[in-house]
Amino acid sequence: MRDEELIEGLRRGDEKAFRILYREYAGKIGSIARSYLGSDDVDDVVQDVMLRIFKSIRKFKGDSKLSTWIYRITVNVCKDYLAKYKRRSEILTDFAEDEEHPTQHPVSEIDTEESVVGELEYERIVNALEKLSPEDRLLIKLRDVDGLSYEEISRIVSKPIGSVKSSLHYARKRLKKLLEEAHNE
Amino acid sequence: MSEEKFNGFLDGELDEKDLDEVTKREVEMYSEALKVFRMRCDYRPSAKLEEKIMRRFVRPRRILWEIAIGVAAAAAVFYVVFNVPPKRNVEPLVQEAKVVSELFDYLSLVKLVGDGF
User: Fold this and answer.
1) Is the ipTM beyond the 0.90 threshold?
2) Would you list the domain boundaries of chain B?
3) CATH topology (fold) of A1-93
4) B69 touches chain A (CB under 8 A)
5) Which residue of B has its CA nearest to A114?
6) pLDDT tens, position by position, A54-91
7) Is A127 on the interface with B (CB under 8 A)?
């Protein structure tokens, strides 16, 4: 289904359109939430983002791609969650907590990844990623993992392209430094 | 310079052959970190969550529509029943008037006979 058809279906409140939306975007929304917040509350974020899409689809003017609009909503919802955590002094960005829920990732994928990177190296990388700020992780995720353009990222995070570029370069530099430190430990 | 090359390569502006050995090592280390990061961010939405979202947001809206259509239909029926006057058939009234008139004529005749003209 093309974006225009999907948007029309969502505006009509068509259940099929919502199912397509969920199947197409829930994984991506959850993935952004996980990169930004860690692993906590991802289901809740997905649900909140879907609710906001549901409520505001009529206001979507189509001046950006549907995906860009959805990612922007996702980032805003994540920021709300982060503010909530900060208020409670519970900044839950600890990726290590994932270890308590090994079923969240397909076992074969973890095995493959760990065998490629090596268990010790894997832990070091995870520790380095944890030390990055949520904003740094988000930029690296959107650009280097998902391969979005600077223009799209600038729309998603509501910042000028130049600012996004420089923030990303600093984020990469920080990650690189953390990896080097971890490697030399 | 190395930083520029590092970012240039990651942004697809430079080829691997344009990198010096140090930057190549940095890129390799960074790429490994990205593999781990990709895996850590992986999220598979569940069918259970899908059903929960559908139940919560989409179905109530459909029910509201159904209620609205039901109310509109009931209002239409109410309007038809109470605001459209039934067509009155005047013919039986004319017939009744004729019967009454004939009855009076008969009674008048009976009275006249009774009075002995």
Assistant:
1) no
2) 2-41, 47-114
3) Rna Polymerase Sigma Factor; Chain: A (1.10.1740)
4) no
5) B36
6) 889 988 988 889 999 999 999 999 999 988 888 876 55
7) no
